[in-house]
Amino acid sequence: MPATPERYLEVQNSEEFGRLRHTLRRFIFPTTIAFILWYALYVLLSAYARDFMAIKLVGNINVALLLGLLQFVSTFVIAWYYARFAAQKIDPAADAIYHEIDGRQPADTASDEGSVV
């Protein structure tokens, strides 16, 4: 039986859901700000510190190329770290809230054949 809209509002206002949102925001906001600052630094250095960015490090590899490649590396590291963080902190809490709404215990879902949670 599907949950009612009132039940969803009750869960949304619950302490567990508030903790889940707080945990997610505590990860998302600082990480996003750090990445935006890191990207802005790269753009500003590219625009205003051309001499610095043109410094050759090894062969034809200069500071600009290295920092540009590190943008990709940092993106993948953040994605990997978020996936790990979500699997450890977010998903278990979200699953518990889901099962509370659904009215079943987590063990019940394993016996449901063909159901997708």
Concise structural overview:
This protein is mainly α and 117 residues long.
In helices, the fraction of residues equals over 70%
Tell me the count of domains. Answer: 1
**DSSP summary, beta strand count:** 2
Computed structural class: mainly alpha
Strand order of the largest sheet: 1-2
Per DSSP, the total helix count is 5
- Strand % is under 5%
Shape: elongated
Low-confidence stretches: 108-115
Largest sheet: 2 strands, antiparallel
Helix and strand pattern = HHHEEHH
Mean of residue pLDDT?
Answer: 87
Radius of gyration: 22 Å
Distance between the termini: 14 Å
Provide structural commentary.
The protein has 117 residues and is mainly α. It has one domain (5-105). 79% of the residues lie in helices and 4% in strands. The protein has five helices and two strands. The protein has helices at residues 5-12, 15-48, 50-53, 63-102, 106-111; strands at 56-58, 61-62. Strands 1-2 form a two-stranded antiparallel ribbon. Helix 2 runs antiparallel to helix 4 (63-102). The radius of gyration is 22 Å and the shape is elongated. Residues 108-115 have low confidence and may be disordered. Pfam families: DUF485. It comes from Actinoplanes oblitus. This is DUF485 domain-containing protein. Keywords: Membrane, Transmembrane, Transmembrane helix. The chain crosses the membrane at residues 27-49, 61-83.
